[in-house]
């Protein structure tokens, strides 16, 4: 099961998994609609168990905190943090049966403190800490949990922002790079609990 599958990192992960003979379950409910999400998951889990849950959907905003609308604050918390926590909750019984794997896509911002990123950092660092604590909880049940912290990735994530990665290939990573990392994580005999993926250079373009 993959969220955020329609574009960017999520799309690349789905394509990579399908080439490796995984069957992808694509949720139809909006992540902010908790009741619809719960109903859809219950219906899915009646017929099948899940071996991998990948929480990839994400929303970003980078501006002075007082300039962010309350609806946008709620959206970021709902999509970036609440939805992955709820999906893990709803899928865990199934994942315990399959001795499955939860992979959460956080952000480089979960590992540092940047100007104009207070809200986004709060959601992504919360997701990272949730992943690491959940791994400790699930070790005896053989469910693996991995958190991935991508740095600047060339996707449509930046379409609504006032900056973007430069075109220099050494200054951004590609969605396909993260998809390959996901396959490597799934194939690894142990557990990679936390991994940060970065380009060599830092070059940001202002729009």
UniProtKB/TrEMBL annotation:
The signal peptide annotation in the UniProt record is none
Q: Which residues form a coiled coil?
A: none
Q: Which InterPro entries match?
A: NAD(P)-bd_dom_sf, SDR, SDR_fam
> What Pfam families would the database entry show?
adh_short (PF00106)
Q: Which residues cross the membrane?
A: none
| Source superkingdom | Bacteria
**Record-linked CDD domains:** SDR_c
The entry sums up its family as follows: Belongs to the short-chain dehydrogenases/reductases (SDR) family.
- The protein here is known as Short-chain dehydrogenase
Native source species: Halarcobacter ebronensis
